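Kindly inspect what follows.
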Amino acid sequence: MPPAPSRTAVTTNHPGSTQQEIDDEPDWGFGHNHRIGYVNSDDRYPGFTHSNDENNEDYEEVKEAIEGSVADEQKKHEGELINFREVMQDKTDIHLQREEVHPPGFRFYVNVTEDWVKKEQPWPANKKAEEKKKKQKEAEGKEKKGDKKDQQADDGKQGKPQGDDKKQDAPQKTQAEEKKQDTPQDKDAEQHGNDKNSPQNKRKDDKTSAPPANTQGQQQSDGKSPNASPSGNQNEPDKPKKSQAASDAQAKLPSTTDEKHTKQRGQSHYWRNGDTDESDWRRKNDEGRPKHNAAFRRSQSQDSDEGYQSGDKSDSDQSKDEEEHKTEYQKLREKYSPEEIALLRHLQNEAKYATNLEQNDGKQVSPVANSEQLIEIDVNDQFTPDNWIPRSTQLTRLTGKHPMNAEPPLTKLFAAGLITPNELHYVRNHGAVPRLYWETHTLDVENGQLVLTMDEIASYPSVNIAVALGCDGNRRGEVNLVKKSKGFSWGASAISCAYWKGTLLRDLLLDAGVDSKIESSKRRWVNFEGADELTDGKYATCIPLEYALDPSNDVIIAYEMNNVKLPADHGYPIRIIIPGWVGGRCVKWLSKIWTSDEENTSHYHIWDNRVLPSFVTEKDGPFAETMFKHPSTVCNEQNLNSVIVKPAQGEKLTFKDAAGMDTYRVEGYAYDGGGHEIQRIEFSLDEGKTWLYCTRRFPDKPVRHGSKYWTWLHWYIDVDIGHLLQASSLTVRAMNVFKNFQPENLTWNVMGMMNNCWYKVKHDLDSHPSKSNAEAAIIFRHPVDPVNSEGWMKPSLEVQLNAAKADTGVPDKQFTRQEIEKHNNDGDCWIVVNSKVYDATSVLDWHPGGKASILGYAGKLTAETTSSFESIHDDYATQKLSECIIGKLTDKGANFIKEQAKHQAEERANSSKNNDVFLRKQTWQPVKLINRKKISEDTASYTFELPDKNKRLGLETCQHIQFGVHMKDKMLIRSYTPTRPILSNDEDGTFELVVKIYYPNDQQPGGAFSSIIDTMPLGESVDVRGPTGEIKYLGNGKFEIEGEERKFDKVSLILGGSGITPGYQLLERVMREKDDKTQVRVVDANKSEKDILLKDELEKMQGDQIKITHVLSHPTDQWKGIKGHVNEDIIKKSCFAPENGVAVFLCGPPAMIQKAALPALKEWGYEEDVNCFGF
């Protein structure tokens, strides 16, 4: 079946922000990172402690529930509810027992989600919160009704008919109008009512409980229940249930089989007219246009960046060679033209080089095997299921944060040499990477005939050979500028060459009983299936069995890459490598192999990795279905391709530098499929009228079985500088053993696959020099620049028109930043694209990239959302998005996105590594837990060790470290301020935290992070990043706040619970620096005496300079201090009044800060971002 039709709905009837809210919204720049109630650049709420853990706002409710719990709650069966400590109880550190069988940087991992433990189980505290929320909604509803009656009364007094205000209330419909409006859905219900595969019937209407797996009418056509896992296990025990919020949102979607239900739901949300198949939509929108494209833009090609030598010679040898070369060149130039000299050099070099190429015996070691391995985790992955995977920040992500699809900058890929290091290898993922273990993973061959462990597979005879692996979407960016395809815009770096080690597939098939003799009249196939769980089922594909059984084809079951265990992104613990074939056939995370008489029919074998005729412009309808299943469209062997790397994209060559050069070395790479040798590279300076021969360079020992070339090659040519400057363009093409050249022009196809036209680089005068006195220069441009979109190719008129259409039809509603940030979960998911606000909740269940690819942007104001969407989606996807639109972002919010993007770009550009400092803002790094010491019954001190004890931690006073624990859906992140080190002489390669432990009880599961860290084995690691927080205390009353230095002689701290720690750092520094005369007043709020963190240390600080007031809400009878909650009176008595040189800093539970402290401070005269800040 073709991809299931995707249906959208707006699940909110939000009226938009009020005019008062819009007027009151701050005038955002990048700043305001310490404004309370808003998410800052570190994805945390300034001034708030870990509300997910300690949430003091709910403590009173929990206490009441414990004291007054009813009998049936007390009688719950043992084990029904699982808390965080129980999750950790049986956790085994497998990866620490046999580190050698795991890839570098393999992390501690908790295989549940925080939401499942805390929110999706029926804890009494959750029930209490739901009841409270329900009562609040009812109260709000009564209040709205009262307001409406008052408005109607006012209208009546003014002679205005009730209900006539169209902006305030929906117009009353007649019965006929209602019936007319419902007709399309009724008709749709009639059409799909008996279709078990229709998306309408796949949705559940019951929001309280799922029906049994065998309920009649709920099974899909393959016999699985809608809730069945892709593996077929309908009652998967460890799979978390969908959150109540998600279930509620799902239940809001109307069932098209129930007319009455549809009408009722239609009042709270409405379906967009978006259930049209793409083929029908295109016929409607492309009416009158021919299906065949008559012509394409001439000479399409691709990308690059910056980099020079191929790495074949040392610097000294290269310099010496070039010096000799110049002398020879000057002599030859007296007799021959530049073209003749280039040809002569090539012929002389090729004759010797080609005859000396050696054969690889399969026992070689990768030349990059001993290179430093990547262990850092990119901050972009922290809120995705891939949060545990080390990835290089050098890779350019092309599909947003998730799933991971990325390529290295072209010049860095080339400069790395003929064998690509693992961290620079391109990555192509369709969804989340499965978490697999060498110790437990098995490979099923031939439906149980042979089931092998990883140790057993590794015991087979192995081969280790260099293979160029590339995506058949390489250079798709050029195709998408002509017309958007169904694929995202790869540059020219979706190709890499690495050593792959493993056993031959042939050996496993023979051991499983597969006959090596195949009847000549019968075609058979060998199928591969991965372990990844994807939106459209398992990733599976196949190749001809006869090909797999031929030992000269080197089809490998690989478990090492460049002589280390496969990185997770590249298939750990095992994958297929089919040399000379497209990457889409080389299945990662391999779990099953079987033979068949028929070709594979799985979704990813049929609906991906195909080149269709250009008249097919969609993925549904009879034309598409016929051609996607047509055997002629399948992509198997790679095609011939070549690319120019140097001159790089954006490279400038000044005329002054050119005057001192005789030649300029142009460089690039080339590859072909099927093991075919690339026999010639040709380069043109005049649009292909004449061609120059180039010099090839292969990896060491590139030949297999006498004539197979599985690797790529690098090429170069030294061009006369005068000819280079006068060239109309720089063009390259390759020729293979069949004497076929690359085509001159690209051919558009719906999947954007296999683009291999001539690669062309253009140059022009630099019209925007960076400095006013900059020298005159030419600037080189590749066809596509994946990073800055500054290639010489520009979007076609059709692409521009489709983009313009997306700007129409925006509802007249505006939303503030604060409002948007509330809608950030799978039950209520808003995203902002091009300053327009969309309710994407209904898209999550069917989105091809999985819901994580959308949830990463839910409720966030970031330019990444727009760039991610536009890089992936075509005009039909844009139409589907428009069906979800609910309004637009305020101008202040749009300016915030702009300034945020500018600041982040500057931060990345300036993030050069300081080798003396450990913490990094852009990456997560592991630190080892080496000591745990109990301070009280619910407080402990934890000591962590840096990987390199010679480095400084790199944390300023009052800043935080973010701690991360890797969980199933995203990283569990908490911010803490260490209690040591405070000053530079405290640094010893370790740091300490004081953490309050929130234990579970019968009513709630306890704190997530505090439970995990308290039960984590010593010697295990957690990840950290930082520093976070833009407040730095410099000493003697001086602060640096968001880069601006300020002086406060008197400082008040209003702190609660674990919020004491950033304040403690400040207090400790004031006490220890004798010259610091800063006056400090502290309000420290807790429940009881035992909850006061660092109590003894704080008591020692009490004096004239520092005064601390403790406020307890539930003290013992012996307590003689202040009882109750923080309020205006306590604040005014205990803190400094607002005046010049006075500031207040806050950190505590959200309810205390937002509902008590902040209003009181504002009323008193404090002003946020001026003299009031959240830590």
